Amino acid sequence: MKGSLSPLHWEAVQGLERFTLLFPLWTLLAALLSLLQPGLFSWVAGPVIVWSLALIMLGMGLGLSPADFRRAMLPPRAALIGVGAQFLVMPSLAALLAWTLQLEPPLAVGLILVGCCPGGTASNVVALIARADVALSVVMTSLSTLLAVVVTPLLASALAGRYVPVNGWTLLVNVLQVVLIPVTVGVVIKQGLPRLAARVQPVMPPLAVVAIALIVAGIVGSQREVLLRQGAVLVLATALLHGGGFLLGFLLPALMGEPRAVRRTISIEVGMQNSGLAVVLARSGGFASPLTALPGAISAVMHSLLGSLLAALWRRRP
Predict the structure, then answer these.
(1) Which DSSP string do the residues of 208-233 spell out, in sequence order?
(2) Which CATH class, in words, describes the domain spanning 16-315?
(3) Which residues in the chain show pLDDT less than 50?
(4) Which of 280, 49, 289 is nearest to 152 (CA)?
(5) In this predicted structure, what is the pLDDT of residue 36?
(6) What is the pLDDT of residue 244?
(7) Exposure of 25 by Cβ count < 10 A (0-12 exposed, 13-18 middle, 19+ buried)?
């Protein structure tokens, strides 16, 4: 790639990459700033959050092609193990933690929504740092995102319905709007206008980082009082959820004899959720309490920090 770019453009691309790799820092700083100055991010709400997530999904689509799916699905064993673990481990673990920690109903539903969401786009960056299988990571994120159109509403209805009424149809419509359509548009642009996609794609990851940081800041600021009062239990819940996801995501493929790179990839994919989607579904999925979005905001910070630490550890052990 370097040979096809001028030195100035190459430096710009490298700068964007360095900015993207520091995404846990930006997310944490945004959350802390929002705690100190909650009014600063009061504009990040409603349509802003929805369109921010749609932008992230569009960026994912711009980086994908049908060939990517074919390459990682032949043979499909590793991808299927990973996606299966994604939708078995995290929803079950989230429901168990919500019950064990006796979370308030809106917070319990919010944690379960996080667990029922697909893998997050940040996992692809973490897989790169951790010397895992990046192609497999991208395909697993994409497959779980596409399956989430049906699976996430079904799982959320089944697991969260004991706390509050869950409208599965509303969730389904929201997932279609903010996931499937933007990803499809991105893939179509890459196939039909490859030069445009190639120019825009390097900018999308840092934009996604900014979007996630803003979503987290907006939710943290709007629910500051509750977070200060119950922040400890939410931090514990999300730490156990994502930590358990990383651990079980590594052990399950190990028991099935998968190589180390695959084990690392599945661990990262299972442990890192699309917390932004959980926030959007909490805000627009027919839930009465705004507190439902708070676990998703805390989750975005937690899985980013844990994933980055794990990637740094694994990078030292090729």
Answers:
(1) HHHHHHHHHHHHHHHTHHHHHHHHHH
(2) mainly alpha
(3) 1, 3
(4) 280
(5) 85
(6) 95
(7) middle
